[in-house]
Structures are given as structure tokens and as C-alpha cells.
Amino acid sequence: MSNSFIELIKKRRTIYSLGNDLPVSQDRVTTLIKDAVKHSPTAFNSQSSRVVVLFGENHKKLWNIVKDSLRAIVPADAFAATESKIDNAFLSGAGTVLFFEDQSVLKGLQEQFALYAENFPVWSEQASGIAQFAVWTALSEENIGASLQHYNPIIDEQVRKAWDLPESWKMRAQLVFGSVAQEAGEKAFMDDENRFKIFN
């Protein structure tokens, strides 16, 4: 028996070879991202996830910030490979989704529900992961390739200043997307016996 949701999960892959020719409009992409995040579950319905979507020159600006940040910490003799990766896998794309978690929401919940205070940061990470997965899968359904990156925290301050973002927004990931220039290869899976235990 087929399950369309499972098929969508299978279709979602990490695509490193991206172009900037989207198969749908920017408005369509924006709507997909908003809907995916809006309907992703969060603990206590906190709705703590925040998202910034960058297209065109703003997308390029982000990845140039990443390059400049890495240039300061990557040894000079190794930077050419780093720069090539950013240029060909990220800058070449059509846009980027920046995922944040609003720490002011978490602080408010910690104060309101002190018994669970230490759990809210964990639940926030889970909420962000769900939102990232939902957006990634929604884009994949429209034949938009993407890869999830984590250049935070080294770019956090520059990004906050560049787009005048609230101090309480903590960056968690960057999902770069675009047209699929090259499909992902075969994916290997560990044996089910080592991963699942079923008790009837």
C-alpha cells in the first residue's frame, strides 16, 4: 500500500548542485515556507520558530557573509576549497531560508511553567527541526532542491546586523534552495534490525 506522505519523505534529499532557476514563482515558494512553518507542531503551541527568506541579492549577500567569516578562521592554504564549495553549492542557488528560535518566547514559558523550565530549550530545538524538515519536504514536492547548513553561530552577529533582526532570535540553520542541477546519489541505510525494536 502506498502512502503519499512517506513518498514525499523519500523524495526529500540533500542536493548540493543547485541552480537559480526555480520551477515555481518566488511567491509560491514563500507561501509554501509560511504554511509549512505555521502548521508545524511546537510544545505548548509556543510557535517559537522564526524564519527569514532571502532571494536574489539578499541570498548572495548571506553567502558572502559566510565566506568572509570563514576566510577569517580557515587556513589560507585550505580556503580555496571552502570558497569553491560555497560558490558552487550555496551561492549558485536561488535562495536561502534562515531558521531561528525566539528566545523571548522560551523565557516567557520558562517563567510561566517553572517545573518544565529546563525542557523548553530542548523542545525549541525539536520545534526548529520539525519546521526545517517540513519546509525542506514542501520544497522538494515542487522539485526544488535544497541542503541544510549550520554556519551559526559564526555568522549570527553579521546576519542580525545585515537584516536588522531582533536580538532574541537565535539562528539554528540555513536551508539553501534552488533548481536541481544534479540529483542526489543512492542513499545507504543501516539494517532495520539495528535500528528498530518491535514488540507485539
Largest sheet: 5 strands, antiparallel
The percentage helix is 40-55%
Overall 3D shape: globular
- Assembly category: single chain
Which structural class best describes the helix and strand composition?
alpha+beta
- Computed CA radius of gyration, to the nearest angstrom: 18 Å
- Rounded average pLDDT: 96
Strand residues, percent: 15-25%
Q: How many beta-strand segments? A: 5
Measured between the Cα atoms of the first and last residue, the distance is 21 Å
Stretches where pLDDT is under 50 for at least 5 consecutive residues are none
State the helix count: 7
H/E series: HEHEHHEHHEHE
Structural summary, described in words:
By secondary structure, the chain is an alpha+beta fold. 44% of the residues lie in helices and 17% in strands. The chain has seven helices and five strands. Strands 1, 2, 3, 4 and 5 form a five-stranded antiparallel β-sheet that branches. The longest helix has 22 residues. The radius of gyration is 18 Å and the shape is globular. The chain starts with a helix and ends in a 20-residue tail after the last strand. The mean pLDDT is 96.
